[in-house]
Specification:
The chain is 75% helix and 0% strand. By secondary structure, the chain is an all-alpha fold. It has one domain.
């Protein structure tokens, strides 16, 4: 891997991780168009540690409060009715689906799921699901109305993002809208829900990303560190922007963007400009 590739992919990861446009699809597409070789699923997972570190910093007070309340609640029944205690369990339960499916389909996620024919089709197809959720969702429920059912449904929606093109935030935001949650409530839970899955995936992928036999181009340790730091810095700014945006705007701009990007990739594939694998 060249330095320019590592830097560009770090920027792309930071810009797209929290938007409902699929950061893994963007890394795959960027690699195919500009660098002719897939950086690989392991590179994606490790750079996501940078954007997830941004979540930990941005929501540090919330995370500390929720964690502390959960620990206290194990021994003290009086706090078990609080939203913080329940939210901790919702994140734990919601993280199970992506963990199970990630282990069951690890090989497919690293290979066939990264085929650009599939990625472009999913980008376009899921755009219409997102559009329907935005149109249909009543958005009458805030984070204080969150229930276990919401955590489970959004957990399965997050698991769908194992396929590049779906988008972790896009899947959870869509599910949240179908559950009548406000966009902001769905986004906040989405950020919290991603922490266990992304951190575990990234940590376990660190050895693979430097393996000569691994998929994709191989970064040096320095390149991996720089790409992850870049993803952290840009990702931190993206969190603040997205929360402000979803509080006052619809998600239709992302629907149009997904369709446009998916159509562009299909055109490049049809003309033989890029390879699907």
């Amino acid at each position: 891997m060249s330095w320019i590739e590592a830097i560009v992919l770090g920027i792309v990861q930071g810009l797209t991780e929290f938007l409902p446009v699929s950061s893994s699809a963007h890394l795959r597409i960027t690699s195919a168009i500009f660098f002719k070789e897939d950086a690989g699923a392991s590179f994606t997972a490790v750079t996501q540690l940078g954007t997830e570190a941004a979540v930990l910093v941005y929501f540090a007070r919330d995370i500390w409060r929720i964690t502390r309340t959960w620990v206290v609640g194990i021994f003290d029944r009086s706090v078990r009715g609080s939203i913080d205690y329940r939210m901790a369990w919702y994140v734990i339960v919601g993280s199970v689906p992506i963990g199970v499916f990630g282990l069951l389909f690890k090989d497919q996620i690293r290979s066939g799921a990264r085929n650009l024919w599939l990625v472009s089709a999913v980008l376009i197809g899921f755009a219409f699901v997102l559009a329907f959720a935005e149109y249909w969702g009543r958005q009458t429920r805030t984070i204080n109305h969150f229930k276990l059912k919401d955590g489970v449904v959004m957990g399965f929606a997050q698991a769908a993002a194992l396929v590049p093109g779906v988008s972790r935030s896009g899947g959870t935001l869509t599910a949240g809208l179908f559950l009548s949650l406000t966009r902001e409530a769905a986004a906040r839970y989405s950020f919290l829900l991603a922490i266990p899955a992304v951190v575990m995936s990234g940590v376990f992928s660190i050895p693979d990303v430097f393996e000569p036999s691994a998929e994709g181009s191989i970064p040096t340790v320095a390149q991996m560190v720089v790409a992850t730091i870049i993803a952290f810095v840009i990702g931190y700014a993206s969190i603040a922007w997205l929360l402000r945006y979803v509080a006052h705007h619809t998600l239709y701009v992302f629907v149009l963007y997904r369709v446009a990007l998916g159509s562009l990739v299909l055109a490049l594939l049809l003309t033989g400009t890029i390879s699907a694998t």
